[in-house]
Amino acid sequence: MNMRLLNEDEITKIYETNMPCDFAKDEIKPLSRILELCKLDKYFCYGFYEKGESETETMIAYAFLVTSENRKAVLVDYFAVADDVRGLGYGSECFKMLLDKVK
Rounded distance, CA 32 to CA 38, Å? Predict the structure, then answer.
């Protein structure tokens, strides 16, 4: 599995496609605010992908993180694992990768 920082188009797609299924509507920040914070380097959105047999990447999970002003703390704002792979240990693996990244 690999983890990578998402671009604006990828963030928008996840926001519009995945987040409404993974979170209650009133829990989701406006997309404009998320993108604004990303541009200010205060918000980071990661996708976790695995290559299938056809070498096509499939998103396994995503995480949206916000940092404190002094960057000494990180809050996981949103985290979700794809329905079809929940309960298989991917969430734990993703969190380990996130921890390594934010250290």
Answer: 10
Report CA 79 to chain centroid distance, whole Å: 6
pTM for this model (two decimals): 0.91
Tokens of 92: 């734990």
Instruction: Please count the other Cβ atoms lying within 10 Å of the Cβ belonging to residue 61.
Output: 25
CA atoms of 44 and 65, how far apart (whole Å): 5
Span 47-90, pLDDT tens digits:
999 987 777 889 999 999 999 888 888 999 999 999 888 888 88
Q: How far apart (Å, rounded) are the C-alpha atoms in residues 83 and 103? A: 28
- What is the spatial order of strands in the sheet that 57-67 belongs to? 2-5, 43-51, 57-67, 74-81
Tell me the C-alpha distance between 36 and 48, whole Å.
22
